[in-house]
Amino acid sequence: MSGTGATSRASRAIRGGSRLMALSTAALGLVAAMAAPAAADDQPTREQLIADCASGEGKCSFNEPKLGTAYLGDFHQVSNSLFNCSTSDATQSMGWADTVGSTDSAGVSVTAGGKIAGLIDLSVTATYSHTWSSSHTENSSMNMTVKPGEVGWISRAQVMQTVSGTWQTHYDSPKWGHYYWYVPDTVTGPAPNGTDGQSNAVIVKTRKMTDAEQKSCSADAKQGQAFVVKR
């Protein structure tokens, strides 16, 4: 009896060991599936991963954000143009409006109020204790003076700043062979006025009329007049 009992216990131990080995092998296979690089054909594009973040299909976070040094962006026209076909200076109050948005490292717009913008703001706020905005809108008016034979308009430059980080996308079920995917990204967007000592700027710009524009001044409706052309 004792020999039979020993044999039975050994058999159960072997069967238990087999189950443990099978479980361990399955677990190792899962780790390998998560860690091993996918074939090139199976890898998602950057656009696909960001789209999944935006739609919510992937549970995403923007990790380890790093703010770059603020700088003054390019000047761009923000008002209509004033053409002066008269023989004296033309002075006029001109309204202007400007909205500056954000773009990612692929040049894709980061929409204000969208999920992507919200995830970046959440990460920046947690790291730097201040909010991040993907868009800034400003408007006002100012007097501008345009000399005879010239065109004038208002230009504005916005303080800009980059924020770099890594998107982590988590799927409930493996997608492209993985539960997690990572993609680095840098987003450039408007920064608050005064960031890093930089200030927004609004200026009046003028230029000489082209030959064609000069000829158009001879038309009855424009001769000797200053007129506005919408941008």
Structure description:
This protein is of the alpha+beta class. Helices cover 28% and strands 40% of the residues. The chain is built from four helices and 13 strands. The strands form four sheets. Strands 3, 4, 9, 12 and 13 form a five-stranded antiparallel beta sheet that branches. A hairpin with a 5-residue loop joins β6 and β7. The protein is elongated. The N and C termini lie far apart (102 Å).
Number of strands: 13
Number of helical regions: 4
How would you classify the helix and strand content by structural class?
A: alpha+beta
Major sheet size, sense and barrel closure: 5 strands, antiparallel
Report the β-strand fraction as a percent range.
35-45%
Mean pLDDT: 86
- Report the radius of gyration as a whole number of Å: 31 Å
Give the helices and strands as they follow along the chain: HHEEEEEEEHEEEEEHE
Overall geometry: elongated
What is the oligomer described by this structure?
A: single chain
Poorly predicted regions are: 6-36
The end-to-end distance, rounded to whole angstroms, is 102 Å
| Estimated helix fraction | 25-40%
List keywords for this structure.
single chain; 231 residues; alpha+beta; five-stranded antiparallel beta sheet; four-stranded antiparallel beta sheet; 13 strands; elongated
What topology does this entry show?
Elements: H1 2-35, H2 46-55, E1 59-67, E2 71-72, E3 76-77, E4 81-84, E5 90-100, E6 102-103, E7 109-110, H3 115-128, E8 136-146, E9 150-157, E10 159-175, E11 178-190, E12 201-208, H4 211-216, E13 226-229
Antiparallel strand pairs: 1-10, 2-10, 3-9, 4-9, 4-13, 5-8, 6-7, 9-12, 10-11
